[in-house]
């Protein structure tokens, strides 16, 4: 559970997040329209999420299937992404409830997404998850595997690959994450240049509360922010 967050606290947090994002965008000479803010809403109650939506949050992301399902009926309309580790047998539970799955970490998972999307006559937008720090504890493709994975996944009939997503290693200082964001951006540009059929490479999802401004400076088009908007979580 999160600690109780007042409307005033959210308003202030939101203002700070927007400020950090705008400074980063300005610093890097990018345009506001190039970077989307997604609110990572794990552990946040539906009243608070709905309040955030009223205040202008347009994109929300859950990272647990059970939690997404338990909140789904009570949420106001918003663009909804799945951002967490997804097990193959849970795909059918969320296929009609999100507009993008950001965390495609295996060909097997991609196959199942395409199959379930096909059953309901949908094409699911996905991002390919990259394990940019080469960590054993994280899922995702290595940079070396990315081109092959992308080519295979893009062939699936009911999937549309929109780009890449990454959760870099946790660092003590936000600035230490910059090299991972740079590597991700390089990979993103590299994959875009390959013009792989049925893939667009328009979305690069990276950066969280500690470092989303650095990610935005380094080319993120989507940043996923939880704590900086909603306050500290007791569990993560
Ligand atoms: C929780 C979460 C975030 C947001 O993390 P914060 O550090 O709270 O901003 C971003 N991405 C994913 C995949 C998450 O699970």
Task: Explain the overall architecture.
With 236 residues, the protein is an alpha/beta fold. It is 40% helix and 19% strand. The chain is built from nine helices and eight strands. It has helices spanning 7-27, 46-55, 65-72, 91-94, 107-119, 143-154, 178-193, 212-217, 227-230; strands at residues 36-40, 59-62, 79-82, 100-104, 124-130, 159-166, 199-205, 222-225. Bound molecules: pyridoxal-5'-phosphate. The site of pyridoxal-5'-phosphate has 13 residues, from strand 8 and helix 9.
Question: How would you summarize what this structure contains?
Answer:
It is built from nine helices and eight strands. It is an alpha/beta fold and 236 residues long. The chain has an eight-stranded parallel β-sheet.
Mean residue pLDDT:
96
Q: Identify the strand order in the major beta sheet.
A: 7-6-5-4-3-2-1-8
Q: Based on Cα principal axes, name the global outline.
A: globular
Radius of gyration: 17 Å
The quaternary structure here is: single chain
Bound molecules: pyridoxal-5'-phosphate
Number of helices: 9
Largest pleated sheet: 8 strands, parallel
How much of the sequence is in beta strands? 15-25%
Spans of at least 5 consecutive residues with low confidence: none
Order of helices and strands: HEHEHEHEHEHEHEHEH
Kindly state the percentage of residues in helix: 25-40%
Tell me the structural class. Answer: alpha/beta
> Span between N and C termini?
9 Å
Strand segment tally = 8
